[in-house]
Amino acid sequence: xxxxxxxxxxxxxxxxxxxxxxxxxxxxxxxxxxxxxxxxxxxxxxxxxxxxxxxxxxxxxxxxxxxxxxxxxxxxxxxxxxxxxxxxxxxxxxxxxxxxxxxxxxxxxxxxxxxxxxxxxxxxxxxxxxxxxxxxxxxxxxxxxxxxxxxxxxxxxxxxxxxxxxxxxxxxxxxxxxxxxxxxxxxxxxxxxxxxxxxxxxxxxxxxxxxxxxxxxxxxxxxxxxxxxxxxxxxxxxxxxxxxxxxxxxxxxxxxxxxxxxxxxxxxxxxxxxxxxxxxxxxxxxxxxxxxxxxxxxxxxxxxxxxxxxxxxxxxxxxxxxxxxxxxxxxxxxxxxxxxxxxxxxxxxxxxxxxxxxxxxxxxxxxxxxxxxxxxxxxxxxxxxxxxxxxxxxxxxxxxxxxxxxxxxxxxxxxxxxxxxxxxxxxxxxxxxxxxxxxxxxxxxxxxxxxxxxxxxxxxxxxxxxxxxxxxxxxxxxxxxxxxx
Length: 485
Hints:
By secondary structure, this protein is of the alpha+beta class. The protein has two domains: 5-230 and 403-474, no CATH class; 235-394, no CATH class. Helix content is 47%, strand content 15%. The chain is built from 19 helices and 14 strands. It has helices at residues 28-41, 58-66, 74-81, 85-91, 93-100, 146-163, 168-190, 194-199, 204-211, 217-230, 235-242, 262-265, 268-288, 291-297, 346-349, 357-368, 409-428, 433-440, 445-474; strands spanning 5-7, 109-112, 121-125, 131-135, 142-145, 200-202, 243-246, 249-252, 259-261, 301-308, 319-325, 332-339, 377-383, 386-394. The strands form five sheets. A six-stranded antiparallel β-sheet has the order 9-10-11-12-14-13, with helices on both faces. A two-stranded antiparallel ribbon has the order 1-6. The model is unreliable at 1-23 (pLDDT under 50).
């Protein structure tokens, strides 16, 4: 059974593919032969392999990553990673990238998300104001072996299944179903025309309708609730949650350390300097937008900026939220300015072709998503005397997610298949879908290997989690708790 593909036109997509993913055009028969040759070089069954000998210390990798981040926020990152093996996994993208670099490589490249765990998929509004389900985190995006994304997704499903208390066979079925959906979807996309592949997207309401019969009543109700509530998560909703009126003017509410307005972080000349840098960033950001989107953005005026702590893996990177107003204080726009550092994949697959990491993130997002944020763009800024790349998007635009930690096995299986379909579609836009389909073949050898890999990696992840626990107890690293995990 396949998820429905809804055809909608994305007017911005194809002009952003600059990562040299194109290859010569070959007849399909030759592409099929190339996919089978890749299978001989890296047999599908070997995708279960996980090399742990002489493996880098995972805590050392996290410490290395922390050096370029805001030091006062690093304990929050470790605190969030300590909540469970699953939150550790979310923050350990570099650790897994290192491990993946030591696994069999198909040699077939596509634009990767780079951090394709199951919570980096979700709901948001398309530019046409329809609700879509897609990958929604691209901090680590780079071209690389397509199977790396799928392995991270598979491992996250196994780890989430353990966290939810599912039995071993149920977890294995969930992982195998997601990998099978990826294989079946790639096979279908390999038969489609280029434009049809480009326009394909998952209709979330139709997907829930189609598979609703497999969910228990409570799970179906929760899924429908998540879809319905997503449309209320917009700038107007953020205005109520994040601001207050002070002397007739909107101000961002301070909730340290998670949200701190610049009026509380800086004072005097230092604050003036930050605001001047912000003005330059906004000008650069505006120039990164297509002309029509720039005209839209320029109708809003800047009100206030605040530092915001987000996610698990991103904690410590510089992240700001900006409040803008349109015709009055009740016509808001919230933008998120998020630092883009080097991808965790870079040392293993090669450096980006882009001149800035923010442009890398935005271009990778536009390439992989069926429809990207209306105001997605980028720009540089000087922070603490250093040039920082920021990518920019709306803070909340119909954004929603499903409560994975409350799902029963049937619900997580549905969610995993949705993610598998979405990932296959994203890879098909940039990678050679015929070669990937030929590599995967028609039997279940690949998904069984991926299920084996996911189980092994979940065991390794639990060991790494315990190493972090010990590192905190010994004082090697410091952890702080907060309510944002």
